[in-house]
Design goal:
0% strand
Length: 114
């Protein structure tokens, strides 16, 4: 699946994220992988008013009463909903990463192991 989505671009995204967290432990690495996937989904969200869902409906037989319009408010709401979910997921993962980083710093300051 990644090959069709641009595997090289996804790998560059992963490398940038890992470079931002050079001392990541195993749990942070898992969060980084999740973050890369969430950012990728957000970046891949169809920015065009007529996305794949509308295009697939347009491909249905012509005897339908009225084809959906590109400015269909329902399609716009669905697209914005997908984008909002992706943004929320990115923010939640970033929050988890920052919490683990803060715990690591606190442990280092107090001499405890995280």
């Amino acid at each position: 699946m990644l090959a069709s989505l641009g595997e090289e671009q996804f790998e560059r995204l992963r490398q940038v994220l890992y470079a931002s967290w050079p001392l990541a432990d195993s749990s942070q690495k898992a969060l980084i992988e999740s973050l890369a996937a969430a950012i990728w989904r957000l970046e891949r969200a169809d920015p065009a008013p007529e996305g794949p869902a509308i295009a697939s409906v347009r491909a249905l037989p012509a005897d339908r009463p009225e084809p959906p319009r590109a400015d269909d408010p329902g399609a716009l709401r669905r697209r914005l909903s997908v984008e909002a979910c992706a943004v929320r997921e990115v923010l939640q993962i970033c929050h988890q990463l920052l919490k683990t980083q803060a715990a690591d710093r606190e442990a280092a300051l107090t001499g405890q192991t995280a």
